[in-house]
User: What shape does this take?
Amino acid sequence: MSEAVATTETTEVEEPVIDLALAEEVIQKYKDIPGNLMPVLQGIQEAYGYVPRVTVDYVAERLNVYPSQIYGVLTFYAQFHLKPRGKFIIRVCMGTACHVLGAERIKESFHDRIGIGHAETTPDRRFTFELVACLGACGMAPLAMVNDETYGKMTVQKVDEIIKEYSSLPI
Assistant: This one.
């Protein structure tokens, strides 16, 4: 009698080797400013695209704070990311106006084209996909954004055009 075993495969993005010289530059920039933890963490995220785990211990040591304090800040504010992200951040609005006008179809189309769900990143780090509560442009619903570029009146065809456009760009 053979036994079937169900497995689920997850795509985990490996964290690259981190050059702490970038973190040190950020720390030096803000070291003499009172309340410097937020600007240091923002600078580190800007330098690396996210806040690598190894930089948390480094910042804790250099600023004389506990790593748990840093993680408290990083997990409280939605602006911080602890995992590598894609070069192109795709956001699909799921607010009321967008929902009524087909956001679910747009979400599914992006998912089908790039193969990742909410808060996931493609293994090549080209795309990160996020569902957001509102992008603040209800008159353009359904709405998507790629980085700072807004795409209104979304259709499945526009999803294909967006993926084609950003897939042709270097990462």
